[in-house]
Amino acid sequence: MLQWEQPWLERAIGDVFGYHAVQLGLPQVNFLADSRMPNRWIVSQQTNPIGLCMHSIVSEFEELPFASQSVDLVVAPHVLEFSADPHQVLREIDRILIPEGRLFVTGLNPLSLWGMRQATLKHLHPVWPLEAHPIGVPRLRDLLKLLSFETEMGRFGCYRWPSQNESRLQGGAFMEKAGDRWWPMCGAAYFLGAVKRVRKMTLIGPRWKTNGVAALTAAARKPSGAASQPVNKQP
Questions:
Q1: Cβ atoms of residues 59 and 91 within 8 Å
Q2: What is the per-residue pLDDT across 120-157, written as a single tens digit (0 to 9) for each?
Q3: pTM greater than the 0.90 cutoff
Q4: What's the fold here for domain 2-196?
Q5: Angstrom distance (rounded) from CA 227 to CA 182
Q6: Sheet order of strands, 97-108 included
Q7: I want to staple 49 with a disulfide (CB 3.0 to 4.6 A). Which of 27, 140, 159, 193 is the partner?
Q8: Do residues 178 and 139 make contact, with C-beta atoms less than 8 angstroms apart?
Q9: Distances (CA, A) of 62 to 31, 101, 132, 184
C-alpha cells in the first residue's frame, strides 16, 4: 500500500508552493521529503516520534499547536480512520490552513476486497488493525464539503487480494490494471486532494428608488426661499 501511496503523494506535494508544510501521523515515512517548502513539520501522537523531517512535534491531532491560517500544506496519511473524532481533526486542519491551502488525505476504502475480508474474517485474519474505522470517499467528501474544502483530485489503488505471502501478492499484480479499468471505486486505498476555499464578502449599498432620487434632485435645485415679485405701490 505504501508503494502505491508514496508516489502519488510525492507527485502532488512537489507541485505545492509555500512556506510551511505539516504531516500528521505515520512518522516512519517522510512524505514531505520532496516538498519545496523551507519549514516542514511532522506531528505524531507517539512519545518518541521517529521524525525524518526538519521538525517533530508530539501533539493530539484534534488540537494542533499551530496558529490559525499559518500553514500552506497538510498531509494526513491514514489519520482519520484511527481518530475518535475525524470531523474535529478536519476542523483543526481547516483552522490552520491558509486560504487556498492544500490538503492531501490517504485512507482505507471499506468497499473493497480488503474491506470484504476485514468484515468477514477480522477476528481470525484481520487485514488492518481492529481499531481502524475506515471512512469511505463519499462520506469524506461530505465532511470536507461541510467545511470550506473543494475536492480537486482523487485516486484509488491496491486492487489485489490481500495476502501475507509475497509470491501471492506478486501473482495478483494483474489485478491492479484490471481494477483500475473495470472497478475503479473498489480499491483498498484511496488518495484525495482538496483545496481550502474562502468566499469573499462584497458589500452592497442601499438601492435608491429612481423617483426618490429625482425628487431629491429637484428639491436640491429649487431655491430655499422664492423671491416675490415687487409690488408697485401707488403714491
A1: no
A2: 777 777 777 788 899 989 999 999 999 989 998 888 98
A3: no
A4: Rossmann fold (3.40.50)
A5: 92
A6: 55-58, 39-44, 20-24, 71-77, 97-108, 189-196, 149-157
A7: 27
A8: no
A9: 21, 19, 17, 32
